[in-house]
Protein backbone atom coordinates (compact mmCIF):
# COMPACT_ATOMS: atom_id res chain seq x y z
CA UNK A 1 0.00 0.00 0.00
CA UNK A 2 1.51 3.25 -1.07
CA UNK A 3 -0.35 5.98 0.79
CA UNK A 4 1.42 7.28 3.86
CA UNK A 5 -1.71 9.16 4.96
CA UNK A 6 -3.90 6.04 5.17
CA UNK A 7 -4.03 5.05 8.83
CA UNK A 8 -3.50 1.48 9.93
CA UNK A 9 -7.20 1.38 10.87
CA UNK A 10 -8.18 2.52 7.35
CA UNK A 11 -5.89 -0.07 5.77
CA UNK A 12 -7.30 -2.81 8.00
CA UNK A 13 -10.91 -1.81 7.27
CA UNK A 14 -10.28 -1.68 3.53
CA UNK A 15 -8.63 -5.09 3.78
CA UNK A 16 -11.69 -6.43 5.61
CA UNK A 17 -13.95 -5.23 2.80
CA UNK A 18 -11.69 -6.85 0.22
CA UNK A 19 -11.77 -10.12 2.21
CA UNK A 20 -15.58 -9.94 2.46
CA UNK A 21 -15.78 -9.33 -1.31
CA UNK A 22 -13.56 -12.36 -2.04
CA UNK A 23 -15.42 -14.57 0.46
CA UNK A 24 -18.81 -13.61 -0.99
CA UNK A 25 -17.55 -14.33 -4.50
CA UNK A 26 -16.20 -17.72 -3.48
CA UNK A 27 -19.49 -18.62 -1.79
CA UNK A 28 -21.24 -17.42 -4.99
CA UNK A 29 -23.44 -15.24 -2.78
CA UNK A 30 -24.66 -12.23 -4.76
CA UNK A 31 -26.37 -10.69 -1.72
CA UNK A 32 -23.22 -10.83 0.43
CA UNK A 33 -21.16 -9.44 -2.46
CA UNK A 34 -23.59 -6.53 -2.84
CA UNK A 35 -23.17 -5.68 0.85
CA UNK A 36 -19.54 -4.70 0.15
CA UNK A 37 -20.91 -1.83 -1.97
CA UNK A 38 -22.58 1.42 -0.93
CA UNK A 39 -26.36 1.61 -1.54
CA UNK A 40 -25.82 3.92 -4.57
CA UNK A 41 -22.68 2.24 -5.96
CA UNK A 42 -21.72 1.90 -9.60
CA UNK A 43 -20.25 -1.36 -10.91
CA UNK A 44 -18.67 -1.98 -14.32
CA UNK A 45 -17.39 -5.42 -15.32
CA UNK A 46 -14.57 -6.39 -17.68
CA UNK A 47 -16.91 -6.21 -20.68
CA UNK A 48 -18.20 -2.74 -19.83
CA UNK A 49 -21.60 -3.92 -18.52
CA UNK A 50 -22.89 -1.67 -15.73
CA UNK A 51 -25.05 -2.06 -12.66
CA UNK A 52 -26.18 0.73 -10.35
CA UNK A 53 -26.96 0.46 -6.67
CA UNK A 54 -26.56 -2.39 -4.24
CA UNK A 55 -29.70 -4.09 -5.60
CA UNK A 56 -28.34 -3.77 -9.14
CA UNK A 57 -25.02 -5.30 -8.14
CA UNK A 58 -26.86 -8.21 -6.54
CA UNK A 59 -29.19 -8.83 -9.48
CA UNK A 60 -26.25 -8.59 -11.90
CA UNK A 61 -24.23 -11.26 -10.06
CA UNK A 62 -26.97 -13.76 -9.11
CA UNK A 63 -27.33 -15.28 -12.60
CA UNK A 64 -23.58 -15.44 -13.31
CA UNK A 65 -22.92 -17.09 -9.94
CA UNK A 66 -25.42 -19.76 -10.98
CA UNK A 67 -23.80 -20.28 -14.40
CA UNK A 68 -20.39 -19.18 -15.70
CA UNK A 69 -18.89 -18.45 -12.26
CA UNK A 70 -20.55 -21.28 -10.31
CA UNK A 71 -17.22 -23.11 -9.91
CA UNK A 72 -14.99 -20.05 -9.83
CA UNK A 73 -12.57 -19.18 -7.07
CA UNK A 74 -11.27 -15.62 -6.67
CA UNK A 75 -8.24 -14.38 -4.75
CA UNK A 76 -7.00 -10.83 -4.41
CA UNK A 77 -4.24 -8.67 -3.03
CA UNK A 78 -4.34 -4.94 -2.45
CA UNK A 79 -1.83 -3.26 -4.73
CA UNK A 80 -2.33 0.29 -3.51
CA UNK A 81 -4.47 2.58 -1.39
CA UNK A 82 -4.54 6.31 -1.97
CA UNK A 83 -6.68 8.53 0.21
CA UNK A 84 -8.34 11.13 -1.98
CA UNK A 85 -10.09 12.79 0.97
CA UNK A 86 -10.70 11.72 4.57
CA UNK A 87 -13.82 9.90 3.30
CA UNK A 88 -12.74 8.59 -0.13
CA UNK A 89 -9.95 6.24 -1.18
CA UNK A 90 -8.77 4.90 -4.52
CA UNK A 91 -7.89 1.23 -4.10
CA UNK A 92 -6.32 -1.12 -6.65
CA UNK A 93 -6.74 -4.86 -6.11
CA UNK A 94 -4.92 -7.47 -8.18
CA UNK A 95 -7.10 -10.56 -8.65
CA UNK A 96 -6.76 -14.12 -9.92
CA UNK A 97 -9.60 -16.48 -10.77
CA UNK A 98 -9.83 -20.17 -11.49
CA UNK A 99 -12.84 -22.24 -12.51
CA UNK A 100 -14.65 -19.69 -14.72
CA UNK A 101 -16.57 -21.12 -17.69
CA UNK A 102 -16.85 -18.54 -20.42
CA UNK A 103 -19.14 -19.79 -23.24
CA UNK A 104 -17.51 -19.77 -26.66
CA UNK A 105 -14.05 -19.09 -25.28
CA UNK A 106 -11.06 -21.33 -24.84
CA UNK A 107 -10.64 -22.42 -21.23
CA UNK A 108 -8.18 -20.32 -19.28
CA UNK A 109 -6.69 -22.07 -16.26
CA UNK A 110 -6.05 -18.81 -14.44
CA UNK A 111 -7.60 -15.46 -15.24
CA UNK A 112 -6.15 -12.33 -13.74
CA UNK A 113 -7.10 -8.71 -13.60
CA UNK A 114 -7.28 -5.46 -11.70
CA UNK A 115 -10.17 -4.09 -9.65
CA UNK A 116 -10.20 -0.29 -9.44
CA UNK A 117 -12.30 0.78 -6.48
CA UNK A 118 -13.31 4.17 -5.18
CA UNK A 119 -14.22 3.41 -1.58
CA UNK A 120 -16.15 5.51 0.90
CA UNK A 121 -15.55 5.56 4.65
CA UNK A 122 -18.72 4.78 6.60
CA UNK A 123 -19.70 6.35 9.93
CA UNK A 124 -18.63 3.18 11.78
CA UNK A 125 -15.10 3.35 10.28
CA UNK A 126 -15.69 0.61 7.71
CA UNK A 127 -15.10 1.20 4.01
CA UNK A 128 -17.50 0.24 1.18
CA UNK A 129 -17.10 0.26 -2.60
CA UNK A 130 -18.69 3.33 -4.20
CA UNK A 131 -17.39 2.79 -7.76
CA UNK A 132 -15.84 -0.37 -9.20
CA UNK A 133 -14.24 -0.97 -12.59
CA UNK A 134 -12.92 -4.44 -13.34
CA UNK A 135 -10.20 -5.10 -15.92
CA UNK A 136 -8.89 -8.36 -17.37
CA UNK A 137 -5.12 -8.56 -17.66
CA UNK A 138 -3.37 -10.77 -20.22
CA UNK A 139 -2.34 -14.24 -19.07
CA UNK A 140 1.11 -14.51 -17.58
CA UNK A 141 3.51 -16.11 -20.01
CA UNK A 142 4.61 -19.34 -18.36
CA UNK A 143 6.87 -20.40 -21.25
CA UNK A 144 10.51 -19.82 -20.37
CA UNK A 145 12.43 -17.62 -22.81
CA UNK A 146 14.68 -19.43 -25.32
Put simply, the count of helices is 3
Total of domains = 1
Q: What would the principal axes of the Cα set say about the shape? A: globular
Query: What CATH architecture do you see?
Result: Roll
- List low-confidence stretches: none
Average pLDDT, to the nearest integer?
A: 91
In which range does the helix fraction lie? 25-40%
Termini separation comes to 35 Å
Radius of gyration: 16 Å
What's the CATH class, please?
Alpha Beta
Strand order of the largest sheet: 2-1-6-5-4-3
| CATH third-level topology | Nuclear Transport Factor 2, Chain: A
Number of strands: 6
Structural class: alpha+beta
Largest sheet entry: 6 strands, mixed
Work out the strand percent. 35-45%
Helix-strand pattern: HHEEHEEEE
Task: Provide key terms for this protein.
single chain, 146 residues, alpha+beta, Nuclear Transport Factor 2, Chain: A, six-stranded mixed beta sheet, 6 strands, globular
Q: How would you characterize the overall build of this protein?
A:
With 146 residues, the chain is α+β, with helices and mostly antiparallel strands. It has a single domain (8-101, 109-137), classed as Nuclear Transport Factor 2, Chain: A, CATH 3.10.450.50. It has helices at 8-27, 30-34, 53-65, and strands spanning 37-44, 50-52, 73-83, 88-98, 111-121, 127-137. A hairpin with a 4-residue loop joins strand 3 (73-83) and strand 4. It is globular. The relative contact order is 0.20.
